[in-house]
């Protein structure tokens, strides 16, 4: 499943990736102007009209003795979608494991198990308040879909140049951080406070 998603995002099959990207963009752009119920109903209606039309077309061919009238979707109808008890248990365990992992992470951040991590999350949410004031969630989702389908393709086509520029930017950021730490005495004090807070926790473990 993971390899198929990677192939889709890297446009290994341009036709399939183009269809998926177009469908996603049309659906998201439709949600900008219509409610999600209306969009879902129209998409389902369009899909049903397509499948019913194809089924009726096969029946018409059978009536004029140019086909057997078989259901064009029979191959998909014959696919066994039932889960064995073992598969059901394994799927349930995976879902439960992810839910518990998410709950542990939320407890870690929101109950301030580590002060530095909680402060980082608070800073992230503070930045998101400014992002939310400029973009709504749907606009960010559209930009995210465009980025997910374009960035891997651009990286694959210009990997050497991008790696070179990323390396330069990383080096510059490292130099800037080093200069800031050298010029601001409070940086070392903040690190000492963070170490002091997390120290008792490490000793307890």
Structural description of this entry:
Helix 2 (14-31) packs antiparallel against helix 7 (137-157). The protein contains 9 helices and no strands. The chain is an all-alpha fold and 205 residues long. The chain has a domain at 158-198. The model is unreliable at 186-191 and 200-205 (pLDDT under 50). Residues 5-205 form the Reticulon domain. One of its GO terms (cellular component) is neuron projection.
List the helices and strands and how they pair.
Layout: H1 2-9, H2 14-31, H3 36-63, H4 74-77, H5 85-110, H6 115-134, H7 137-157, H8 159-183, H9 186-204
GO biological process, one term: brain development
Protein name: Reticulon
Organism: Bos indicus x Bos taurus (Hybrid cattle)
The quaternary state of the protein chains shown equals single chain
Distance between the termini: 38 Å
User: Quick one: how many beta strands?
Assistant: 0
Mean pLDDT: 84
Classification by helices and strands: mainly alpha
- Tell me the Rg in angstroms: 27 Å
Beta fraction of the residues?
under 5%
How is the main sheet built? none
Protein name: Reticulon
Main location: endoplasmic reticulum
Organism: Bos indicus x Bos taurus (Hybrid cattle)
Subcellular location: Endoplasmic reticulum membrane
Structural features:
205 residues, mainly alpha, elongated
What can be said about this structure in brief?
The protein has helices spanning 2-9, 14-31, 36-63, 74-77, 85-110, 115-134, 137-157, 159-183, 186-204.
